[in-house]
Amino acid sequence: MTTDPGPHDPGTTHDPGPHDPGPDTTEAPAASGYAAALAELEEILGQLERTDVDVDVLAAQVQRAAQLITFCRDRIGNARLQIEQVVATLPDD
């Protein structure tokens, strides 16, 4: 009797089914930066506002939008911290 080792077994390939999103795409667009992430978010929003959105595509787009929002929030938080550190080093008038 053979058992299916499953998608997490090293040395096997995972064949995504119709409802499987495929490979993990949680990596933020670090190389392309905040502006590119924001532009992608705007593109996704435009697609979601259409009346003919495919439900399978909708789920993937919402997931990607959540990833991009997290990325943008992190970038804004880091920028805020850096600005506060620079301002703290300025001499008082």
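That was protein one. Protein two is written in the same sequence-then-structure order:
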Amino acid sequence: MGSKLIIELEAQIEIDKAIEWYESKQIGLGADFFNYLDGYFQTLKNGEALFEIKRKPVFRELPLKRFPYIIIYEEYQNQVIVYSVFNTFQDQNKKTK
């Protein structure tokens, strides 16, 4: 059985903004981004990969390959908590956590 995925409000806002931005550039690209991101969420939920701790105490970063984003998350008990879906073109000092 997979873990429960929890997307924090700040991460959801970042996702919504990214979808809106990609959709403004090309119709359907926002949906492509969401579907691609959801595939990564499924990987995290199913525990198919464990990514290294990048930020202490236990925050992990999962970079997307097709889009310039990093998922910042934590695994806690039977949960995957997503704190940020960070656009890597932004100032790195703006990363949450």
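Helices lie at 9-25, 29-45. Keep this in mind for the problem set.
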